[in-house]
Amino acid sequence: MKVKTILVSQPEPKMENSPYSRLIDKEKVKVDFRPFIHVEGVNAKNVRQQKIDLHKYSAIILTSRNAVDHFFRIAEEMRFKVPDSMKYFCQSEAVAYYLQKYVVYRKRKIYVGKRNFDDLVTLFKKYKDEKFLLPSSDVLKPIVPETLDQLGVQWTRGIFYKTVISDLSDLRNVYYDILVFFSPSGIESLLQNFPDFEQNDTRIAVFGNSTVTAANGAGLRIDIKAPTPDTPSMTMALQKYINDANKK
Q1: What is the pLDDT of residues 55-66, one digit of tens each?
Q2: Strands 154-165 and 37-41
Q3: ∠ at Cα 180 (179, 184), nearest 5°?
Q4: 177 & 116 share domain
Q5: Is-above-0.85 flag for pTM?
Q6: What sign for the dihedral angle of Cα 36, 20, 242, 170?
C-alpha cells in the first residue's frame, strides 16, 4: 500500500531544512508531528523531599537539555546560586552547547562526552572525588546508574522532572499510513490513549531496540526499523520504505 501520510510522535524540528523537510519535498508525502509524551517539572518541595541539598554537590551530570533546564529551574526555585566552581559533565556536545543558555561557557568547568553515557567514563574516573548530582526524569536508562555504581563514584539521583503521557483524544478518528515511535513511552501513550487500537493497514516505524521490544510486547507489527547499517536514521528508513511502497 502506498504511503501518503505520516505521524511522527515527536515535536516538529525547529531547523528549516530538516531531514523531514527533504523527505516531504522529495516524496510528496504529508508529515505531521505530535508529541505522544511531554515533560513536566516537579517543584522544589518535591526535590527537598528527596533529601536533595544542592549545596552538597560539586559536579552536575547532564544527560539531556531537559536535565539542564530543570536543574537551573530548581536552583532558582530554591534560591541556590550555582557557584562558578561547579563542574558540568555533559553527555554530548549538544547538551554542552545548550548549557550556554545558563552559564558563560568559557568561564566554567565543562566536560563533554561524544554521544553515549559510556563516553563519560574516563572523565568520571579522573574526577572520582567529586560529589555528583544527576538531575533526571522519573524514567532513567539502566546504563546510567549501573555505570556510576560500577565506577564507585559518589553520586545522587534527583528526579527533577517527569515524563507524562499526552492527551491525544483529538486524533481518535484521524488515520495515518505510518506512525513513527522513538521510545517505549511513545508506545505506552498510544495504547493508553487508544486502548482499542487496531493496527490493520497502519505501518509502525520504530527507532531503537527498547522501542522494538515495547512494540513487540504490545503486539504491534513492526514494518520499519532504525537504526540499521543501511538506514542509520529514521528519515532514511522512511525514505527507503516509501520508495519501495510507492513504486507498486
Answers
A1: 999 999 999 999
A2: antiparallel
A3: 110
A4: no
A5: no
A6: positive
